[in-house]
Amino acid sequence: MAKYDAVIVGSGPNGLAAAITLQQQGLSTLLVEGSDTIGGGLRTKELTLSGYKHDVCSAIHPMAMASPFMRSLPLEEYGLSFTFARYEAAHPLLRETGAVLSRNLEETIQQLGDDGKLYRSLIQDVVDRWEILAEDTMGPLRFPKDPILLASFGWKAVLPASWVASRFKTERAKALWAGMAAHGIQPLSNWTTSAIGMVLMAVGHRFGWAIPVGGSQEHS
Amino acid sequence: MVGLFLSGDLRSIADALATYYLKLGGEIQTEVWVKDRAALPDHRLLILDLTPKQILSIKGLNFTSSYERQLRKYRQGMGVFKVDWALSEPTPFTDLRARQAATVHIGNTFADVARAEREAHAGKVVDRPFVLFAQQSLFDRSRAPERKHTGWAYCHVPNGTEYDYTDIIENQIERFAPGFKDTILARHTYGPKALEAYNPNYIGGDINGGIMDIGQLYTRPTRSLTPYRTADSSVYICSSATPPGGGVHGMCGFHAARTALKDHFGIIINLP
User: Fold this and answer.
1) Are residues B96 and B51 in the same domain?
2) Are B168 and B120 in contact (CB under 8 A)?
3) Which residues on A lie below 8 Å from B3 (Cβ)?
4) For A177-208, how does the pLDDT look when each residue is reduced to its tens digit (9 = 90+)?
5) pLDDT tens digits, A125-135
6) CA torsion, points A118, A121, A127, A132, in degrees to nearest 10?
7) Within-domain flag for B193
8) 58-97 in B: which are within 8 Å (CB) of A?
9) Looking at the complex, does the CB of residue B127 fall below 8 Å from at least one CB of chain A?
10) Do residue B69 and residue B128 come from a single domain?
11) Which residues, at least 6 apart from A147, have a Cβ–Cβ distance to it below 8 Å?
12) pLDDT in tens, B207-261
């Protein structure tokens, strides 16, 4: 018999997630990491001066609290706590008032004036029914749990962000939308770039964009 | 023992996940670079939180040549150029609401952001890039000494570029926060190559583990409905090179493990 049922290579959030999922089912597992600390893109280091703690890669975590997997774990019992800013994100403009993404959907809609209605039509369903949509979108393709909901999300999500932007009238809404969609790290004229924008905004309204608190308590 | 390899004195998401995993009975070994499967302790399944390029370099995986060919065709996206700053004061954004936001999207209008992303994707050096800026220390005082602050930013750049974007990024922030440059006490930069050296999953600085365009959004890294499986039935991929791609959510890992549990142990699991 093998010493381990599974060896997981790499200790970023996905390696840890795989290891936890297998271990939860009673398998014997070993997680190996090439570096001297675990974490992959989740490490924090004093990169500049002593006493200044910098997130080496990932900093703000919009998807952590929105992830069905992360939500299923008792991470607060293991030292994790999140804090939030007044606004999840701001998008300043040089020649006019910019826009913000606030946890409060109504506040976000209100600042967009004439574009508030279009914003609501893009985001409201995703906010209200995130759990079901997450199951249908945050994994492999398979028959959806709610095909109608997925279809109504999907036909907008698949569009290039630039198409959706052209439907907004105000620069403020267009710019806010651009900044969100640009998290997809590709030209905004690409298909599916609306998906990332819609999801980032919706999870911001639903859960907030979480900042993990860097306390210094000892593990017990 | 836990303290040996956790990320320092910060109680990050990684530390919480690792502590929970250890409590469940899991084991962790650091400083193990896997070059050959045979060098690992005896095991039944191998689950790889790695990108296709690294997977192809591991010896002892029983892949078919057609599967290897598919992995070789996997496409990376743009890289990032990242800068961290120690700052003497909060970043003086002209827009007062930007001073109260954890993340600030710096790139001005839709047209400007769209142009920046298009040109960077086309391999050009963009003078006024879309800069993702975060100011965690305003909301979490444990990040910096008293009255001092941190800044964190990156912009998207051509994959693997060696161009130094430090001035470009700082100039772009300065347009929206005049006086920012005077607050800089120290900086640290990571270009695409340095990021890859730090974390080999960031090939050419690509932090999403491969471009997440329509051709690779759900069919990553290969054209399969269950791309966690590989041509070797005992090997699975769980990195962000599988659906649903980049981001800190752990869903790639969960789905890879779920598939392996079903395939080899007859265990069917679902999230609550």
Assistant:
1) no
2) no
3) 218-219
4) 999 999 999 999 999 999 999 999 999 999 99
5) 999 999 999 99
6) -150
7) yes
8) 77-78, 80, 82, 84-86, 93-95, 97
9) no
10) no
11) none
12) 999 999 999 999 999 999 999 999 999 999 999 999 999 999 999 999 999 999 9
- Considering the domain architecture, whether residues B89 and B161 belong to the same structural domain is answered as yes
Identify whether residues B134 and B182 lie together within a single domain.
yes
Domain A6-84 fold is FAD/NAD(P)-binding domain (3.50.50)
Is the Cβ pair B47, A35 closer than 8 Å?
no
Residue contact A92–B152, C-beta within 8 A:
no
Distances (CA, A) of A98 to A60, A176, B56, B191: 21, 8, 46, 30
- Per the domain annotation, does B203 fall within a domain? no
Q: Do B207 and A88 touch (CB under 8 A)?
A: no
Chain A residues whose beta carbon lies within 8 Å of the beta carbon of residue B24: 20, 23-24
Residue B133 near residue B104, CB atoms below 8 Å:
yes
Residue A61 has pLDDT above 90, yes or no: no
Residues B182 and B112 in one domain: yes
- Full residue range of the structural domain in which residue B8 is found: 1-31
ipTM of this complex prediction, to 2 decimal places? 0.94
Residue B232 and residue B218: Cα distance in Å, rounded?
Answer: 21
Position A219 scores a pLDDT of 29
Q: Flag if B8 and A61 touch (Cβ within 8 Å).
A: no
B191 shares a domain with B89? yes
The parts of chain B modelled with pLDDT lower than 50 are 1-11
Query: Best of A9, A136, A143 to disrupt the B interface by mutation (most B CBs within 10 Å)?
Result: A9
Structure tokens at A21: 């999922």
Tally the domains of chain B. Answer: 3
Domain boundaries, chain A: 6-84, 89-207
- B199 and A41 in contact by Cβ < 8 A? yes
Q: Which of A137-141, A167-171, B4-8, B77-81 has the lowest mean pLDDT?
A: B4-8
Whether residue A31 contacts residue A16, with contact meaning beta carbons closer than 8 Å, is answered with yes
